[in-house]
Specification:
The protein has about 130 residues and is of the alpha+beta class. The protein has one domain: 2-Layer Sandwich (TATA-Binding Protein), CATH 3.30.310. Helices cover about 40% and strands about 25% of the residues. The chain contains 5 helices and 5 strands. It has helices at about 10-25, 35-40, 55-65, 95, 105-120; strands spanning about 1-5, 25-35, 50-55, 75-80, 85-90. Strands 1-5-4-3-2 form a 5-stranded antiparallel sheet. A hairpin with a 2-residue loop joins strand 4 (about 75-80) and strand 5 (about 85-90). The longest helix has 18 residues, at about 105-120. The protein is globular. The mean pLDDT is about 95.
Length: about 130
């Protein structure tokens, strides 16, 4: 899991990532805003959003490599607030697909991780851990 703080609100981080997803282009499969959904029920919680990101051509590649790996797509970026700080969490595709021990999935994961590195780079403070 990659986890890092950003000097943006969760909403600002989501806006930057959504713009990066559209520009790349990748596909936004779903955008869950936990804070907004809880507010509809009268429950106050800190900011919490999940972006599910993928693209149909990558889904086809994953299914061809190992149909059961379909449970692990789309990939997700979690944006949340804790202790007054905005955080981003992402599980790299290489980690997601590792349990399958499949060379084709490993190659797909490398492509996806390069794409997600570019998407996360839209958040200025983020740098790929060495």
């Amino acid at each position: 899991m990659i986890r890092f703080a950003v000097n943006l609100s969760v909403d600002e981080a989501a806006e930057k990532l959504l713009a990066a997803v559209a520009a790349y282009p990748m596909g936004l499969v779903a955008h869950a805003n936990g804070q907004a959904n809880c507010a509809k029920k009268g429950i106050a919680v800190p900011a919490d959003q999940v972006l599910e990101i993928f693209r149909p051509d990558y889904a086809v590649k994953v299914w061809a490599a190992d149909k059961t790996a379909g449970i692990d797509i789309p990939l997700r970026i979690h944006l949340y607030q804790a202790a007054g700080t905005s955080w981003v969490a992402y599980r790299p595709a290489a980690n997601v697909f590792k349990p399958y021990a499949n060379a084709e999935l490993d190659a797909i994961a490398a492509e996806l991780d390069a794409i997600f590195t570019q998407l996360l780079a839209s958040l200025d403070t983020w740098r790929l851990p060495s």
